[in-house]
Amino acid sequence: MNTAKTLGAAAALLCAATFAHAQPAWPAKPITWIVPFAAGGPTDAMARDIADKVGRQVGQSIVIENAAGAGGTIGAAKAAKSAPDGYTFLVGHMGYMGAAPSLYKKLAYDPVKDFDAVFRFPDTPLVLLVPKSSPYKTAAELIAAAKANPRKINFGNAGVGSTSHLIAALFESRAGIEVTSISYKGAAPAMNDLVGGQVEAMFDQSNTALPQVTGGRLNAIALTSLQPMPQQYPNVAPLADKTLPGFEAATWYGLYAPKGAPKDVVQKLHQAYLKALADKTWTARMAAQGIHMLPEAQYAPDAFAKHTAAEVEKWRKVATDAKIQID
Ligand code: MLT
């Protein structure tokens, strides 16, 4: 190799070494997780719990940024446009990362093309909740009233296309009823109006439903899990028991990076999450809220990416069958 080429190669090596030296090791600053609902809802609660544990593992604080609106699609679009630098992520779920492409004709992002899956969270079944003062003691009673009074019973939800909206739409379709949906910027504000009686019913994930029920502010009248949850909701039957045989639903969640994020960062976050899950006190506390742990392999980036793609396809059929359309 002649002198000029040798010098050129040496200069390139020096630049690479300098650049590498100039890039501090990840994570060199706080990390942001975008939660596209108002604070205090089930997505926010799950995200803050997991962010705290993962942040301790990676040695950097993880800041939750609530960016609410349009059933989570506003925050998801913001995340999709963020720099793929390993410092901004999206907490996604089955609504805006699974069903949204089938519900919104114009969606500002593609859950599969615009994101890299980082790791899946545990799943959370939902609870059908009514105010303490409600006349409905079971799902069958609510369905009978809705059949007799089409579009008169109003259901709160966390936004059009949110889990609480989707599950209510599936419930309507299966039960052969029509209710009126009242949308909020998250489950938390919807729950406030449910407690106050401004709305008559709502589906909410078990992790935030349970304290409202044990605190005596709301009644649980049905579960979307196939199995009863006697520790959490004694004497509350799954919808699948008798009312709507085979009806099962749970919210899946997970962490996504804008497409092109550093692969070593994705791996470090996944490994940090698995180390956090080794804390059996923590996982027992989540299970006590009704959260379903998954087989460890399902948490992995590749498995979660496959799950997301499969869910987008699944919801094309589900939305058509249940006639759920947003815009
Ligand atoms: C939903 O999709 O209903 C969300 O989980 C609501 C929320 O987390 O606020």
UniProtKB/TrEMBL annotation:
Gene3D superfamilies documented for this protein: Bordetella uptake gene, domain 1, Periplasmic binding protein-like II
SUPFAM superfamilies per record: Periplasmic binding protein-like II
UniProt signal peptide: 1-22
InterPro entries listed in its UniProt record: BUG, Bug_dom1
Keyword terms of this UniProt record: Receptor, Signal
Similarity comment: Belongs to the UPF0065 (bug) family.
The protein's name in its UniProt record: Tripartite-type tricarboxylate transporter receptor subunit TctC
